[in-house]
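anyone else get weird line breaks when pasting these?? whatever heres mine. first is seq + tokens for prot A
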Amino acid sequence: MLIVLTGIDGSGKTTAARALVSAALAEGRDALLLSNYAGRRRMSLLSARFGVQLPPRLADAVESTIRVANVLISHARARRFRGLVVMDRHLHCQLALREAKGLPRGRVLPWLLRKLPTPDLVVYLDVDPQLAHDRIMARGTDEESLADLTSLHDAYRALPEFAGFTVLDAGATEQQVLAELRRTLAEAENARASVARLKV
């Protein structure tokens, strides 16, 4: 079972992914957490430190290269794993960033999405950009402007892939988000089992 978590910065993707895997392990299930970062946080910190801002296309090229490499490695690991695989971020995230920056989708990322194994569930953790901004400021490890978060929030919804996402309220407490994730996972697993029975 492969689940992908997406959402704007501050939506709680990493926290939710870790909690879901921990809950599955506590139940005695085999579960694996894989992260598909693009290095945006480190790049933004370096840019702020040295006062150098990369042009949007160059920044995207660097981020996309890192993201694609991580996604390919993650899928290679997931292919060998028998159990629940939770991916924190995916190529959808880079496509949303491109949309938010006014950059073209390109051909490589959409092509890779079609060629890679289709996740059983792509969850979009929906959160108000203001709340996401407050969370980012509170953790103090990186910086994102409210305007950029709002643009990214809208960009996700503009993706043609968004229609296939399962949208969950990420403005709730961590416990509530985890409960909704587990419920959604159970429904997806039941549906998958029903399809398997029909094929027998």
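and prot B, same format (seq, then tokens)
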Amino acid sequence: MSALKSLVPARFLTLAAHLVIVITIFWSRDNNIQSCLPLEFTEEQFKTEDTRLLVALSVTLGLFVIELAGFLSGGSMFNSNQAVLSLLSHSGACVSLSCFVFQQWPCWSYWIMFSLCRSVSSHTD
């Protein structure tokens, strides 16, 4: 099996894994926001952090739609450079988002992970 043929399923699996983690964070936003706030917080602080995380997750899901459309239409499916960069960025995002959830990182760290992982994959889009 050539390297290009093995990159396509690996890229799809990392895209799917990253999407599942983002959707999981989206559904469990309340728990993630509570871990970002001090032990005693106001309703206003909660709503502010909720809005910030909601915007970050919405931007992420919007970019997923664009990337999956390009991938599934075949436009970038067989580009080996794009596949390798996509594998690296989405694998890194999966690992860092898993740490974000399990280790209860601050909510602002989501934007750092987003910008680092997105900057790697955007060089060949």
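btw re prot B: The chain has a mean pLDDT of 85. Residues 7-12+54-125 form one domain.
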